[in-house]
Amino acid sequence: MRTKQSLLPLNFRLHLFELEDQPWFPHIFRQGMLDFLRFMISKLGAYGPAIPLLEDLLRRSGQTHFTDLCSGAGGGIAGIREALSQRMGVPVLVTLSDRYPNIGAYEFLQAESGGMIDFIASPVDATNVPPQIKGVRTIFSSFHHFRPQQAVAILQNAADQRAPIGIFEGGGKTWAELVIFLFTFPIIILLVTPFIRPFKLSRLLFTYLIPIIPLGILWDGLVSLFRLYNPRMLDELLDRVDTPPGYTWRSGIVGSGPGKQVIYLLGYPVNK
After folding, report:
1. Which helix (H) or strand (E) segment is 224 a member of?
2. Strand order in 165-170's β-sheet?
3. Is 209 exposed, middle or buried (0-12, 13-18, 19+ CB in 10 A)?
4. What's the pTM?
5. Does pLDDT of 8 surpass 80?
6. CA distance 63 to 66
7. CB contact at 8 A, 264 and 252
8. How far apart are CA 40 and CA 138, in angstroms?
């Protein structure tokens, strides 16, 4: 099932390379870029429009805990967890995971949340999630990293294990977002970097003196927009998934205006 589409959409997908995906890319630069992403997502509340969808997914599943796949630096998770806890009237717990776990960021979020956010320290492959990881799965800001064959494998794995899954991408994949990104983010990066926590001297060094982190953010941000799957593309991926009986999918866009839209895909077992 699909809902509304964006105006002036980018109706194409280019799978160019992102620096943070490359095994050879130094972790200190990758971490600096992910820390910026976490800061911006949290401050902007980018996933606010998607919180009711995740709440519905949790309630359908009878759970108050979700495991986040491809967590990166955990951008926005703290705010999402707090909003869900308020809406549901009970503490919501989150477990972070990634193929390349950002342990420093996860420990920071765990401490800030008083243990309500924990993490899996060993690598977790989203295309082949270990069966011992039960319950609701989420992927924020990361599904576009996967080529179609890998993306289908993620969806097939969730369906085969009858695991509820919520995939959320900040943005509507529009030309307006592309223009705003190119003209505002170079300035925003320079303005906000001193306020990102936990503080790291290396982040300042590689932002202001040797600007590898800003250049990496701009390149990966531009490529991410080109890589995004819009709802039509998500439905094309679903056509390749062998969905078992009693499992269903929903895709669409929520929110309105540049920077306030979220592309989503939900999958969950249906109780008959």
Report:
1. helix 212-227
2. 117-119, 93-96, 65-69, 136-140, 165-170, 262-269, 247-254
3. exposed
4. 0.88
5. no
6. 8
7. yes
8. 19
d(CA 172, CA 118): 30
Residue with tokens 């809406």: 87
Burial 42-66 (b: 16+ CB within 10 A, else e): beeebbbbbbebbeebbeebeebbb
Count Cβ neighbours within 10 Å for each residue of 214-244 and write b for 16 or more, e otherwise: bbbbbbbbbbbbebbbbbebbbebbeebeee
Contact 167, 265 (CB under 8 A): yes
Report helix, strand or coil for 69: strand
Please name which of 257, 258, 251 lies closest in space to residue 229, comparing C-alpha atoms: 251
Yes or no: say if 233 and 265 are a contact pair by the CB < 8 Å rule: no
Cβ neighbours of residue 36 closer than 8 Å, sequence gap 6 or more: 189, 192, 193, 196, 213, 217
The answer to whether 101 and 110 have CB atoms below 8 angstroms apart is no
Decide if pLDDT at 257 tops 80.
no
Q: Name the nearest CA neighbour of 232 among 252, 258, 209, 261.
A: 252
- Quick one: DSSP state of residue 143? G
**Structure confidence at residue 1 (pLDDT):** 47
Is residue 89 left, alpha or beta, with left meaning phi > 0 and alpha meaning psi from -120 to 50? left
Average pLDDT over residues 22-51: 88
Peptide bond preceding 198 in cis form (omega within 30 of 0): yes
Residue matched to tokens 């911006």: 40
> Amino acid identity of 150?
Q
